[in-house]
Amino acid sequence: MQPLVRAAAFAALLAALGALGKTPRPKAPEPAKAPSTVAPAVAASCGPRTLPEGDVCIPLPPPGRAPQPDGREALPVGPETTAERSTLVPRRPERPAEVRAYRFPLTAEAAPSVLAGLDRPFDLSVEAGDVATGPGAVLLEASSGDAVVALSLEGQEGPAEVAFVGEMLGETVVMAHLVRDGGRLRQVLLVHGNLDRPSERAVVGAPLEAGDEIGFVGDSAFRGRPGLYLEARQLREGTSLGGLDAARLREDIVSVPVDVRNALPLR
After folding, report:
1. Please, what sign has the CA dihedral across residues 240, 258, 154, 229?
2. What is the CA radius of gyration of the chain?
3. Nearest CA to 249 among 60, 139, 104, 86?
4. The pLDDT of residue 222
5. Whole-number pLDDT of residue 74
6. What is the pLDDT of residue 121?
7. Which residue ranges are recorded for the region named Disordered (predicted)?
8. How many C-beta neighbours within 10 Å does residue 10 have?
9. Confidence at residue 29, expressed as pLDDT on a 0 to 100 scale
């Protein structure tokens, strides 16, 4: 064997002996990744203060406000949400100022005068001291037992719906009207208070046409002063009557008071 060949073979033998016991350790298996329940496109498109859940983005409640068990946002409770702190939406310039230009939720032939509200001070206190009259509300002259009827408001679409029946401003019935205003649909609430009693047809959720009886005039809110308490409010955008505590319909965060002349139909 040639000297060079023997030297190469000897070097190979030494290298083989040196490699003994130096077998590289196998790599540790990588932990399996948990499958994502969020669609990548949804996770990427969720905006600030939202969390992806499944194929939807769930909004976080505002700081200091906790969500309700059913996922709806809890409305704050406190004196700052009472109707008396609301800012009134004033009468529109194109709407007549004269009260006699409007139809009120009384019988068709009735042309009541305003006992309180609008240009007259509303200096009457509600029998239940923890309830305030709303800005823009009126007390209309009427006799005890007079029928109170549903109206069809300016731009209304479909029948009105009974939204509340019970104690609010004395015996009260609140009607919800879907109104088209400036190309948009809005919910307008008419609060009928100081009633003697609601009618048999005044059942929450029931649709009522114009002229249907909703109750009868009394003095349940202003003892000794019979008349129809009437207040108009516009439901805030993004607020739905479904699942809402109806007793809070007059609160600032739910609706804003509107001059009744913006809502009532003309004669």
Report:
1. positive
2. 35
3. 86
4. 87
5. 43
6. 58
7. 61-94
8. 10
9. 58
> Which parts of the chain register pLDDT below 70?
1-86, 109-111, 117, 119-125, 127-132
Per-residue pLDDT at 43:
46
pLDDT at residue 82 in the model: 40
Alpha-carbon gap, residue 57 to 75, rounded angstroms? 21
Distance CA 45, CA 52 (A): 9
| Assigned CATH class of 81-262 | mainly beta
- Segments making up each domain of the chain, as ranges: 37-74, 81-262
Which amino acid appears at position 32 of this protein? A
3-state secondary structure of 79: helix
Contact 173, 150 (CB under 8 A): no
Q: CB neighbours of 7 closer than 8 A, spacing ≥ 6?
A: none
At 10 the pLDDT is 58
Q: Report which of 65, 45, 66, 64 is spatially closest to residue 55, judged by C-alpha positions.
A: 45
Specify the pTM: 0.66
The total number of residues written for the chain in this structure? 267
Residues 46, 48, 51, 55, Cα dihedral to 10°: -10
DSSP H/E element including 12: helix 3-19
Calculate the alpha carbon distances from 75 to 80, 227, 251 in Å: 12, 33, 10
- Residue 99 CB neighbour total at 10 angstroms: 19
Cα–Cα distance between 4 and 115 in angstroms, integer? Answer: 126
For residues 219 and 223, what is the distance between their CA atoms, to the nearest angstrom? 5
